[in-house]
Amino acid sequence: MDQTGTPPRKAAKSPDPAASAPAAPPKFEDALAELERLVQGMEGGQLPLEESLEAYRRGMELLKHCQGQLADAEQRIQVLEAGALRDLAPPTGTPA
């Protein structure tokens, strides 16, 4: 304790730059493969409870990531299709 009667503060650890830097998001195929491995491991029933919970948490992260990538891809396809259909439409004011 210091002179004021409070316990001394522990020095804060400096953050590890590698740990604090966000990891690049995995490619869709890599995320899907990891998700499949996690599901197989959990379905096998051989994981301890804590590992199962961590696998479930990671699986949910991967699932959200994959769903987001699929939604983005679907939106890009819709934009491309709309542009392609617009190119095929006759100009306005021109008889078809």
UniProtKB/TrEMBL annotation:
Catalysed reactions, as listed in the record: Exonucleolytic cleavage in either 5'- to 3'- or 3'- to 5'-direction to yield nucleoside 5'-phosphates
EC number from the UniProt entry: 3.1.11.6
A family per Pfam: Exonuc_VII_S
Any one GO BP annotation for this protein: DNA catabolic process
Entry keywords, A to Z: Cytoplasm, Exonuclease, Hydrolase, Nuclease
One function term, GO molecular function aspect: exodeoxyribonuclease VII activity
Cellular localisation: Cytoplasm
GO CC field: cytosol; exodeoxyribonuclease VII complex
Top EC group: hydrolase
Claim: Hydrolase is one of the keywords in the record: yes
Region (Disordered), start-end ranges: 1-27
Domain of life: Bacteria
Keyword Cytoplasm in annotation: yes
Protein task: Bidirectionally degrades single-stranded DNA into large acid-insoluble oligonucleotides, which are then degraded further into small acid-soluble oligonucleotides.
Family: Belongs to the XseB family.
NCBIfam families hit by this protein: PRK00977.1-4, PRK00977.1-5, xseB
Subunit structure: Heterooligomer composed of large and small subunits.
Name of the protein in question: Exodeoxyribonuclease 7 small subunit
Lineage: Bacteria, Pseudomonadati, Pseudomonadota, Betaproteobacteria, Rhodocyclales
